[in-house]
Amino acid sequence: MSSERGQQASLTPLPSVEELPTLADGGFDPERVKEAFESFRRHTTQLHERDAQTASAAQFRRTEEDVSRRQRALQEREHEVERFRQESERQRAEILNAARNEAREAQAEAQRHATAEIREAEARASRLLEQARHQATELTNSARAEVEQTLEWARAQASAVMARAQEGAEQLLAAAGLGDETIAGVADKIVEAAQAATEASRGPAASSGAEEASSPGAPSPPASAAPPLSVPAPVEPPVAAPDEEPDGSGSA
Q1: Of 232, 240, 228, the residue nearest 168 (C-alpha)
Q2: How confident is the model at residue 77 (pLDDT cuts 50, 70, 90)?
Q3: pTM exceeds 0.70
Q4: N or C: which end of the chain has fewer CB within 10 A?
């Protein structure tokens, strides 16, 4: 307002008709009229200048207000962008932490499952190994018992065969007319030869049976029946007919 008042005070005052001097013939003084027009022109020019200045000042104020408004909007936009960036950083950190926690939990769960499966597999393997050992022991004991039974049966059969052979040999030798001592010696020789043959045949059979019993994968022989042996029927000695005496001796 003070600047406008100063501008109004600095304006050239407009002349009035009353201030113009008049001549004797009733007209106005030409020089004063020219001065009045010049004052009016200067006043009009000053008014135009003042209006231009006022318009410039108003435009400048509007420009300043527009710039200030845009600066405020830009600052608000920057604040909003900063808030959005901070919120994004916070959400990203939360997502990363959650993902890391989930990964750690999944890894721990996988390790627990793997440990449990390993322990279960080890326990299963131990049970299977123990069952295999138990079965192998049972198979070994069963095979050993069957081999022993077979050997006992074979010994009993061999003893019976030798006894029958000895009896048959004694009968044959007695029928042949040999003495008791000769018959006993021959029978002893036959028995000794039979025993030697039996022992010789028993050695490989016993070793093979032990090897089969020691191997866990070898199938065990059936224990239902002992192997049959063909026992020779005792040979009846021929009965010698009594010597017939000649008719002459009988008559004598």
Answers
A1: 232
A2: very high
A3: no
A4: N
